[in-house]
C-alpha cells in the first residue's frame, strides 16, 4: 500500500469524502493504482489503474483512508500524519508514504515511511522500503479519561485485538470497583470503554490495572500496567497555568501553548478555551476540547494545530501530551496575550508576552519558545525565559529547560546562582535576585556595575514589590550585548513613600567558556 500526499496547497476539509470502485478483479500479489478517473492515462505506464469518478481528497498533514467492501464492512484503515515521513523535506511534497512490512499492518506510524525511490514513489510495484518490521512489543496504556461516573475511556498506543481484549477480568479498578462491560471502540481499536458496577466517588483516588490484553499482532500485555485517576474537581484561577509559549515558529512551523496542572487536583478541561486579546481588547477564543479531558496533577498539555509538524521541529517532544485543535487564535510575533478560560468562561490564567522577553544574545528567536521559570510564581514577564539550545529551543510536553525550583529569600535579597554562564545552554543561563519585602509599598531600583564602578545595566527602575518575588539578569548590558566574564556588583535600593530608604550590595560572577 502506498499513499501519495503531495498536494501541499490543499486546504484541509473536515468533511468525509468517498469514491466508489468500478467492477474489477485483483489477483493475489497484484497491485492496483487507485486515482481519479481523469488521471488514469498518466498512471497507466506504471501498472494496473483503477480510476474513480469521485476520488477522496487527502488533507494536508494527515487524514484517515478507509477501504470498505460492497456491504459496508471495513477492510482496512490507515490514519496517517505527515510525521510518518520522518524527513521534513519529503513531507513538504512530492513523495509518497509506503508501508514497510505488509505482514504487519497493525503497527501504524512505525510501519510507514517516505519512499526511497528517486521518483518519489513506487506506484504499481513493490514498495521501495519493503523490509521485515515485526511488532514484538505489547500494547501500552497512554491515558485514562472519565466519560461519566460509571464509564472510563482507556487509550492505548496501538490497535488491540478486539475479540481477545474484552474480558472484564483483564481490567482491575481499585479500591473495590468491578468492571461489568468492556468495549473496544471501532474502527481505530486503540480505545477501550469500561463500564463499572458503581459510581466513582468525588475526592477519591483510583487506580486501573490492565493485563493480558493483546494487540492486533498478538502480543500479550503480560506485565500489568497501572494508571491513577480521579473524578475531576472544580478548577480555580491559577490551578492550571501557561507553562510555555511558542508564538514565533520557524518557517513551516506552528504555534503551541503548553499548560500544566500545578494543583493537587484532577481537573477537567472539557469545553475550555484558549484565547488571544486583540489590540482592540476583544478576545478571540477557540476550543481546546469539547470531549472529556482530565489533567492530572503536574501533567502537561501541549495545545497545537499540527502535532506532526511540532514533532518534526522538536524531536524530544512528548507526543502523549499533545492536544490537537482545529485552530488557534492568532498569536502575533511582536506581542500578544494568551488567555485560558474554563467551561464557564472564567479566566484561569493569562500571560502577556513580548518578543523583548527573549534572551538578548539569541540572534534569531524564530522557533524559540518562552518557558516559565518557576511554577509557583505569577504569570509575569520576569518569570519567563527563552528555552535552552540543548533541547532545541523548546520543550513541548516535558519539564522546561529553564525551570528553577522555588527559592525563598533567607534575607531581604538572595542571589541564586552567584555564578552564571549566559550562553543559552540551559545550565545557569541567568541569575535571579530573590526578595522578601518586610513591608507593603516598597519600591526597588537595581543597577549593575563592574569592578571599576562603571554602569553596566539599569536592571530595575521604580518597581513596586510584591511580598515575595524575583528579578532576573541575563548577563547583558544596556546595549543588549553580553557583559565580559568577571565580577559584577548589584546595587539595590529600596524606598517607600514615607521616606524610608535601604541599600544593598550583592556580588555575582558572569562566567563562560575559556
UniProtKB/TrEMBL annotation:
Gene3D superfamilies in UniProt: 2.60.40.1220, 2.60.40.4070, Lamin Tail domain
LTD domain ranges (all copies): 228-355
InterPro entries for this protein: Cu-Rt/internalin_Ig-like (IPR014755), Lamin_tail_dom (IPR001322), Lamin_tail_dom_sf (IPR036415), SbsA_Ig (IPR032812)
UniProtKB keywords: Signal
Coiled-coil residues: none
Pfam families: Big_5, CHU_C, LTD
Designated name of the protein: Lamin tail domain-containing protein
UniProt organism field: Adhaeribacter radiodurans
Amino acid at each position: 500500500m502506498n499513499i501519495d500526499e503531495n498536494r501541499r496547497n490543499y486546504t484541509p476539509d473536515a468533511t468525509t469524502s468517498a469514491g466508489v470502485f468500478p467492477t474489477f478483479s485483483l489477483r493475489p500479489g497484484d497491485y492496483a493504482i487507485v486515482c481519479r478517473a481523469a488521471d488514469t492515462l498518466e498512471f497507466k505506464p506504471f501498472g494496473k489503474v483503477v480510476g474513480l469518478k469521485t476520488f477522496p481528497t487527502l488533507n494536508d498533514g494527515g487524514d484517515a483512508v478507509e477501504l470498505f467492501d460492497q456491504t459496508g464492512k471495513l477492510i482496512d484503515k490507515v490514519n496517517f500524519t505527515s510525521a510518518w515521513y520522518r524527513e521534513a523535506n519529503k513531507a513538504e511534497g512530492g513523495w509518497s508514504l509506503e508501508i514497510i512490512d505488509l505482514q504487519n499492518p497493525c503497527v501504524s506510524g512505525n510501519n510507514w515511511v517516505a519512499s526511497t525511490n528517486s521518483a518519489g514513489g513506487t506506484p504499481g510495484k513493490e514498495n521501495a522500503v519493503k523490509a521485515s518490521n515485526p511488532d514484538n512489543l505489547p500494547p501500552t496504556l497512554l491515558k485514562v479519561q472519565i466519560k461519566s461516573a460509571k464509564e472510563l475511556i482507556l487509550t492505548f498506543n496501538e490497535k488491540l485485538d478486539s475479540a481477545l481484549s474484552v474480558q472484564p477480568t483483564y481490567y482491575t479498578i481499585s479500591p473495590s470497583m468491578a468492571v461489568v462491560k468492556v468495549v473496544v471502540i471501532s474502527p481505530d481499536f486503540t480505545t477501550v470503554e469500561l463500564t463499572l458496577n458503581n459510581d466513582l466517588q468525588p475526592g477519591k483516588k483510583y487506580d486501573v490495572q490492565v493485563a493480558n490484553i493483546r494487540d492486533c499482532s498478538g502480543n500479550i500485555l503480560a506485565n500489568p500496567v497501572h494508571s491513577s485517576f480521579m473524578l475531576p474537581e472544580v478548577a480555580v484561577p491559577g490551578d492550571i497555568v501557561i507553562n510555555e509559549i511558542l508564538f514565533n515558529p520557524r518557517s513551516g512551523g506552528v504555534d503551541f501553548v503548553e499548560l500544566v496542572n500545578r494543583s493537587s487536583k484532577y481537573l477537567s478541561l472539557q469545553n475550555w478555551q484558549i484565547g488571544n486579546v486583540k489590540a482592540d481588547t476583544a478576545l478571540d477564543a477557540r476550543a481546546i476540547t469539547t470531549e472529556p479531558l482530565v489533567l492530572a496533577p503536574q501533567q502537561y498539555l501541549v495545545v497545537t494545530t499540527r502535532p506532526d509538524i511540532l514533532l518534526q521541529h522538536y524531536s524530544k517532544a512528548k507526543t502523549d501530551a499533545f492536544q490537537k485543535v482545529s485552530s488557534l487564535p492568532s498569536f502575533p510575533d511582536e506581542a500578544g496575550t494568551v488567555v485560558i478560560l474554563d467551561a464557564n468562561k472564567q479566566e484561569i490564567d493569562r500571560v502577556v508576552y513580548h518578543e523583548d522577553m527573549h534572551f538578548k544574545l539569541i540572534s534569531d528567536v524564530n522557533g524559540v519558545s518562552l518557558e516559565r521559570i518557576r511554577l509557583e510564581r505569577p504569570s509575569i514577564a520576569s518569570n519567563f525565559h527563552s528555552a535552552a539550545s540543548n533541547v532545541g529551543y523548546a520543550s513541548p510536553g516535558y519539564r522546561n529547560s529553564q525551570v528553577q525550583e522555588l527559592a525563598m529569600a533567607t534575607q531581604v535579597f538572595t542571589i541564586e546562582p552567584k555564578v552564571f554562564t549566559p550562553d543559552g545552554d540551559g545550565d545557569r543561563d541567568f541569575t535571579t535576585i530573590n526578595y522578601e519585602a518586610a513591608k507593603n509599598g516598597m519600591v526597588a531600583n537595581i543597577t549593575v556595575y563592574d569592578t571599576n564602578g562603571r554602569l553596566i545595566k539599569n536592571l530595575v527602575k521604580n518597581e513596586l514589590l510584591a511580598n515575595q518575588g524575583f528579578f532576573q539578569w541575563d548577563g547583558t548590558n544596556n546595549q543588549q550585548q553580553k557583559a565580559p566574564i568577571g565580577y559584577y556588583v548589584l546595587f539595590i535600593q529600596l524606598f517607600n513613600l514615607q521616606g524610608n530608604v535601604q541599600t544593598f550590595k550583592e556580588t555575582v560572577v558572569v562566567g563562560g567558556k575559556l
